[in-house]
Amino acid sequence: MTGFPRSPRLVKGGIVQLDPASGAVRNIIALQYNPDSLTRGFQVQDSGDQHRRRSQPLRFTAPPVETVKVEAELDAADQLEFPDRFADAAQVGVHPQLAVLEMLVRPTVDQLVAADRSAAAGSLEILPMEAPVTVFVWSAARIVPVRVTELSVTEEAFDPALNPLRAKVQLGMRVLTVNDVGFAHRAGGMFLAHQRRLEALAARAGIAAFPALGVGGVT
Predict the structure, then answer these.
(1) Burial grade of 147 (CB within 10 A; 0-12, 13-18, 19 or more)
(2) pLDDT tens digit string along 19-43?
(3) What are φ and ψ of residue 99, in 5° steps?
(4) Alpha carbons 91 and 75: distance in angstroms, whole number
(5) Are 13 and 34 in contact (CB under 8 A)?
(6) Which long-range CB contacts under 8 A does 60-63 form with residues at least 24 apart?
(7) What are phi and psi of 3, to 5 degrees?
């Protein structure tokens, strides 16, 4: 059965992982259902010094620290209706979807083995394992590099083999800025592109007139 021809195409939010060196796409994760809400927080960056706050109260030292929180739902019921397309759903439920989200916060086995071999070889300095560039996509207007800071999973239903059939995932992210990664890093360039889109959207809001505020001016 086809849908109403004038129905808008559903765009899903999701996460893209890029190779930090080449920029090649490593993975694309589309949320099964778009969350009903998205929570964003901003912590303004100032000098942090009380004296400077008083003498230079209008200065920014860096972009704000922005955090994003979403709650995603996973449900194997929709997939069980189409066993030919989603054979895994009948065998392991939503385990694969949960696993791909968990890999956002885990190093790979190859990385762990390589770090252990470097330590065994007596390396004086072992560099921390580098994760892919993680990009949160929430429409074409909001494409931001992030670091996943929080992942919480609540599994709510299971099959006879204890495979999870339904789950809620709370995902917390921090937007990476040029202050975190620098201007030359791929994530830094993506942040600047996001900032330009934000400035362009702000310009489209227009400027209200003083009478709308009930005053003739602010001087």
Answers:
(1) middle
(2) 988 999 999 999 999 999 999 999 9
(3) -65, -40
(4) 14
(5) yes
(6) 62/177, 62/179, 63/177, 63/178, 63/179, 63/191, 63/195
(7) -80, 175
